[in-house]
Design a protein that fits this description.
513 residues, two-stranded antiparallel ribbon, two-stranded antiparallel sheet, 6 strands, 50% helix, TPR-like_helical_dom_sf, SusD-like_N, SusD_RagB_dom, membrane, signal
Length: 513
Amino acid sequence: MKNDHKNHVVKMKKTLCIVLALFTAAITSCNKTLDIDSTRVVGEKNMWNKLEDARAGLLGVYALTRAALSDNDGHWLYGDVRTGEFISPNRQDLKAIASNQLNASYPTVDALSDWTRFYAIINAANIFLERIGDVKAADKRYTENYLIVDVAQVRFLRAFTYFYMVRIWGDVPFITSSHDGKFENQPRESGSKILVWAQQEMLKAAADLPFVYSNNDVQQPGNYYNEDATRWGGALATKNSAYAVLAHLAAWQGNYTDVATYTKFVEDNYGKSGINFQSTEDLTKSNGFFFNKNTSQMFGFNSDWGHIDGSVTGHLEELTLAEPVVNKKVPDIYMPKDTILKIFDLPKDERFSIDTLGQPRTERYFTNINGKYPIFSKIKVILGGVSDPNFRYFTSALIFTRIEDIVLLRAEALAVLGDVNGAENEVFNIMTRRGMGDLTIDSDQDIIDLIFKERHRELMGEGHRWYDLVRYNKIKQNNPAFMKLINSQGIYWPVSRKLIAQNNLLTQNPFWK
């Protein structure tokens, strides 16, 4: 055990060194496009000689992706706080985001308007794809199968990053090569064109990705990088990961025929990746679904306590938790009681419901419901999955998608395509798992409304809500104010003023001019 731990620490140090090198290379080689003042301290020429370099370079792209999503709690501020349903008692920057004042002069708002950290991922991926052949040529241990599987993962992560950026900014610069750090400033490219490319890239990656690593998958035989399946489950993108993200990409494009196809693939094959539906208890307990990594995390980025990984920032808990869950007087954000009761209005809902006297039947999603600040405690992975309120060191995984999300996304697609019975079966699948049996649809119940209400409840706090609202309003088109926001491109974030000042080819989103 001692030697295993020592070997693991050595591998971690090696990976961290390469991550730092990749990050330095990434932000340096796009410094003219993104205007980053930095000095090239590590060259790539000595990084791509052996199998260990490939492993560290691959994990470096994953690490940069996780860092970009969690920086300034961005994944949740973009996806959950912007809707205005969460309120901040004392942070003016969060109040600005919740009220769509995205050009307000606060450091957090400015940082979230800056796409630099995402281009660090893209350039690290570009460097990997350009140099990985050198490893293949130099180290006989690095087999053709390693090359195929590694390239598929990096291509998928690069395409995912572009998809993620397009949802935030719309049009963004499109860069698919490192140019050895010498390429010039580039203008923004059409977001719709980038999404077409990203879809093609993800499909190509999906063809080469295995369902599972180190577990006798025909597309990845043997132990991947000499580690068993427990090391990789939930840590790496699988074929199901790719099709799940493809479903989200197609939904954002409004191409629901593709959504139905991609979600059907995942529903038919999720078990091959060791993915399971989560009970309400497992979803919400401190050592449950969001703890460490597990195969049911269809696509996400873990902070594994066992790998000495975690922080006091970059986790949802930093924003939402306070007394009595942790030793903190006031949460940065909370959901008012009236809002909670409007959302969770079904009496048998295991996630949260109240009795006839106004007392909670269950407090899995919310604690302190009758206090001044109800605490959103669905995700609460403190230390190694314990519940000690004296600590604020978090290790929850950032999950982009899971099987419940995909089932509800399929329901959305079927409803839009006119298969109401199919849509009902999908949404009832999730609602039944949350304690609500004997479900029926009233004649005046709109199936689209039901599906998005259930997505609201099930996926709360997972970064989906803003994008769900955009899709919902594009489908319904009965909210003039939101439709105006869509048509004026106000659904996107402004481009950082700093980036525009430093790159005269960039233009501001029309809504924010």
